[in-house]
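Summary for the funding panel

The consortium committed to producing paired sequence-structure records for every protein in the target list. Below we show the first two records in order, beginning with the earlier of the two.
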Amino acid sequence: MLKGKTVVIGVSGGIAAYKAVEVVSRLKKLGAETHVIMTRNATKLVAPITFRTISNQPVVVDMFEEPKRWNVEHIALAEKADLFLICPATANVIGKIACGIADDYLTTTVMACTAPKLICPAMNHNMYENPVLQGNLRKLRELGYRILEPEYGQLASGAMGKGRLPEPEKIVQEVVTLLNATEDLRGLRLLVTAGPTREWLDPVRYISNPSTGKMGYAIAEAASRRGAQVYLVSGPVNLEPPSGVHLTQVETTAEMLSACLSLYDDVDAVIAAAAPCDFRPREKKKEKVKKTEGAETLELLPTEDILKTLGDNKGKHILVGFAAETHNLREYAMEKVRKKNLDFICANKVGIPGSGFGSDTNAVTVIYPDGKWEEIGPDSKHNIALAILDRVRKIALERNILENPPV
């Protein structure tokens, strides 16, 4: 699966360093050539000879030790790598990389490497949640680094929290995915919307919906991995933005429309996976409305129709919408396809287990303007995202938006 690929693994001084031994072993079994770089602190936890035995390659620790081969070794490894994996990545190493500090063999090689980089943070949960660390991770994501989120569980200190290094199998699967990714969307400029919007009633209450943004974020991440230039316009969600994606955060439907219009002329396609509110209060009260014995009458007005606005000015854009319905799924979705001038719509029925809001899986009915339709799923939202992007790519090739597709 990884034959002919070279993975450079940087091991920093976290207690989870022992898991990196199995990661290297699994990568070797998949055919990868592996080279391990260790920080001095990491050698206090795992002996370099362990990695040397498994990788069948010298393990480098000291920046100025006598080289095993006659070359500028950190430059040679940086150029040799098809992927640079840092596992585990401590808060210290993450901070140094984010700030461009190259004061040891590991950070110097990272600085010189132009290959994709995957960082696997592992640390105490309070360290992981520290705003400084989170800011460094955001910076690295914006620079295109891939971050594999740590998991929730019991930590070395005995405390429960988010900070555990994922199991080796999951880390290796992420490496395989990155190394085998086909950049068949390179050249496509894509706008994705995700999450809910909020329409405020007063300073403490708002109208919204249960959208978590998982589907839109899965599409943005998958498109970025396939080489697209991705702009993500997101409502309020509790998700980390995918690496390499340009994020714009909004709150209201009007703000989401404004953000989309500001990007519209610079993109080729739009996938509107967000769930913007359909209504807003006629008036937002300046002060909290007090609870009284009588019911408060709430007068609502329709919000801006984002997709219809984009569809009315479609030009050569590829437009894809989403529709969450409780009944008459195909009929209502077909009406939206035609009314909003879409290339296709992904409709899913609300209330079915494993589909729609909050779920990690989904099932959609793809409906086209000519009345044809097809079912996708049930499957993971990642795989649903890939299937949607396959259909966008087909249209982009037909319209000559994408040129020189990979053979």
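The next record, for a separate protein in the list, is shown here:
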Amino acid sequence: MKKLLFSLGVILPFFASANVVIGTTRVVYPDNQKEISVQLLNNGSEPSLVQAWIDDGDIRSTPETANVPFLLQPPVVKVPAHSGQQLRISFLNRHALQADRESVFYLNVLDIPPVPENMQGKNIMQLAVRSRIKLFLRPSHIQNHADESIQHLVLKRNKGTLTLTNSGPFFITLVGISDGTSKSNILGEGIMVAPYSTLNVAASSLPAPGTSLAVTQINDFGARIQTHTVMQ
């Protein structure tokens, strides 16, 4: 999701653009890799200045305040028009790894577009655009079974609450739960269930125990995968 982060200038009119995009919707870092790369693409007709950093879950983080076990290079780079740039990410601190489960961090990319030529010398308010996606740090000995993570999810009805229990080592990202008889999404919005944890979600209407449910999950490649389970 992209969010307006800060502004430059003092008076209207304002100018905003989001030309630089991340080439994936999520990043998986197997802990046995020395380095991974993430592709940035500038779809605009002008170069953009990009600042990138990783945070541990605080959306208010900045490059100066973020404290994570990664090295990201380059932290600031100019991306030419209709071109790309690779960000290189290295995992530095093995002691920060939870050996029995994934950990989640977030990659931030701030696109600071240039002032258009027809606005040069004028007083404008310019908005930079921040993109933020999940970065999963995955112990190498569990990485080959991520596609089976949904098998570790149990859904249970508890009055007006849906209880989701994840007994596996992977984060499970869900964007939809339906009983198959209607297009209504029980979730309302996407959620992520952490490894070996339980998450309670308020719901006004839940199918009865024993109902077959269609569950839509986001996999490692950002694709939507639908599987079926039974409400407990």
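Regarding this second record: The chain has no helices and 18 strands. The chain has two domains: 2-138, 142-230.
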